[in-house]
Amino acid sequence: MQLTSSDFKENMLIPARYTCQGQGINPELQINNVPSEAISLVLTMHDPDAPSGNFVHWLMWNIPATTTKIDEANVPKGVTEGITSASSAGYFGPCPGSGEHRYIFTLYALDTTLKLKSETDLTGLQLAIDDHILASTTLMGRYQKTAIA
């Protein structure tokens, strides 16, 4: 399974457009080689370099296994978004307090769909998918705030 983006490459800088210094919209993501037995996909995005140790920026589940692209500033129809570390559902763009941070998008292929409420956070999501993961892959981008003149 593979997760890529036309907006940034693995271990490269995420364009400001997708951060708190830009429009704060999600980048386009491409999905390839999902296992044929997958029923649904889950996508998470987190910052392991946050002072708290892990800041969750995006949670999505019940993405159809046939999905090959998540469009910029868009969520596939029928998908549920969970609660981020910003205490809200939906994409929360990179916005590090200081220094460069890593932002890790993780895609999971599951053998089921999830019956979770939209109030579910990362811990609840991880518990729900634990015994259902067929495959996973990551895409990591980096971001550091730039000084505004």
List the helices and strands and how they pair.
Blueprint: E1 2-4, E2 12-13, E3 29-32, E4 40-47, E5 55-64, E6 69-70, E7 80-81, E8 101-110, H1 122-129, E9 133-143
Parallel strand pairs: 2-9
Antiparallel strand pairs: 1-3, 3-6, 4-5, 4-8, 5-7, 8-9
Question: What does it look like?
Answer:
It is built from one helix and nine strands. By secondary structure, the chain is mainly β. The chain has a single domain (2-143), classed as PEBP-like (Phosphatidylethanolamine-binding Protein, Alpha-Beta Complex), CATH 3.90.280.10. The strands form two sheets. It has a six-stranded mixed sheet with strand order 2-9-8-4-5-7, with helices on one face. Strands 1-3-6 form a three-stranded antiparallel sheet, with no helix packed on it. The longest helix has 8 residues, at 122-129. The mean pLDDT is 96.
CATH superfamily, by name, is PEBP-like
How large is the share of residues in beta strands?
25-35%
Oligomer kind: single chain
Helix content: under 10%
For the termini, the CA-CA separation is 42 Å
Low-confidence stretches: none
CATH architecture: Alpha-Beta Complex
- What's the number of extended β-strand segments? 9
The residue-averaged pLDDT reads 96
What order do the SSEs take from the amino end to the carboxyl end, as H and E? EEEEEEEEHE
- List the total number of helices: 1
**CATH fold naming:** Phosphatidylethanolamine-binding Protein
The major sheet is characterized as: 6 strands, mixed
Categorize the overall geometry. Answer: globular
